[in-house]
Amino acid sequence: MNWYVEDLITRFQSKGAVVDANLLLLLLIGSYDIELVGHDGFKRVAKYAAEDWATLRRLLKLFKVTVTTPHILTEVSNLAAQLPDHHRSACLGTFVERFKDFAELKTPSLQAASRAEFTFLGLTDCVIAESASNYLVITDDLRFSNYLNRIGLESLNFNHIRTLAWNW
Fold first, then answer.
1. Rg of the chain over CA atoms, in angstroms?
2. Helix count (H) and strand count (E) of the chain?
3. Contact 106, 69 (CB under 8 A)
4. Enclosing domain of residue 158
5. For the segment 101-127, what is each residue's pLDDT rounded down to a tens digit?
6. What CATH number did the domain enclosing 151 receive?
C-alpha cells in the first residue's frame, strides 16, 4: 500500500467512508455469490475480480463507519435487479442484511441537483459531493474522484489500489 492511501485511511478511519454505487454493487453481488464476480454472467461486476471484492471488504473494515445515501442504495438496487432471473430474487433478498450496519445520510435531491456539476455528474454523485465533506469517498470512477479532489473533498480511487491490495 502506498503512503498516500495509508494517509487517507489514517485520516478518515475514525470519521468513515462513503462508498460509490458500483463498489457497493460489487460488495452485494460478491457477498451473495462470489462466482458472479469477474465473469460475463453479470456484466455489472465483470470488470472486477474476486480479489477486488475481498480487498473492498478489508478496506471497509478499517473505517469506524461506512456511509451510504438513499440515492446510492437505489442505484445498487436497480443495478442488482438486472441480474438474471434465477439470481435476482435471492440476491436482493440479502440487500438489507448486507447494508444494515451502514450509516445512511439523507440529502434532499433538489438541493444536490442545484449544484453546478449536476449536469455532468448526475444526481447520485452530486448527493455524494453534497454530503461527503466529513468522509472519505471511495469510488472507481476516475472522473468523479478527480473532480472531488479538485473541489477539496478527499477521495480514494479504488482502481489505484486494486491489484496492489490483493497481497495486502
1. 15
2. 11, 5
3. yes
4. 3-165
5. 999 999 999 999 999 999 999 999 999
6. 3.40.50.1010
